[in-house]
């Protein structure tokens, strides 16, 4: 998550970490003109990877 975002102005300063991350990701997608279909496909890959990491013993 980027500390360069001015989260105080948007009311995100006290938001949960997952909300801040979601806002950062949306901004990243929009700033880089990522098509929604591409963003969703990439997020599905990330979702699968993170779920696999949660089920693996360390």
Would you write up a description of this structure?
The structure is a single chain. The protein is an all-alpha fold. It is built from 3 helices and no strands. The mean pLDDT is 88.
Question: Notable features of this structure?
Answer:
single chain, 58 residues, mainly alpha, 0% strand, flat
- Shape type: flat
Strand content: under 5%
Order of helices and strands: HHH
Instruction: Give the count of structural domains.
Output: 1
- The separation of the N and C termini measures 25 Å
Which residue ranges are poorly predicted, with pLDDT under 50 across at least 5 consecutive positions?
none
Q: How many individual β-strands?
A: 0
Helical content band:
55-70%
Quaternary assembly: single chain
Topology readout:
Elements: H1 7-10, H2 17-31, H3 36-55
Protein name: Pleiotropic regulatory protein RsmS
Pfam families: DUF2496
In short:
67% of the residues lie in helices and 0% in strands. With 58 residues, the chain is an all-alpha fold. It has one domain (7-55).
């Amino acid at each position: 998550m980027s500390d360069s975002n001015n989260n105080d102005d948007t009311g995100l300063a006290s938001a949960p970490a997952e909300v801040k991350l979601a806002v950062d990701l949306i901004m990243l997608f929009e700033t880089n003109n990522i098509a929604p279909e591409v963003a969703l496909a990439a997020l599905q890959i990330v979702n699968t990877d993170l779920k696999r990491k949660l089920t693996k013993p360390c």
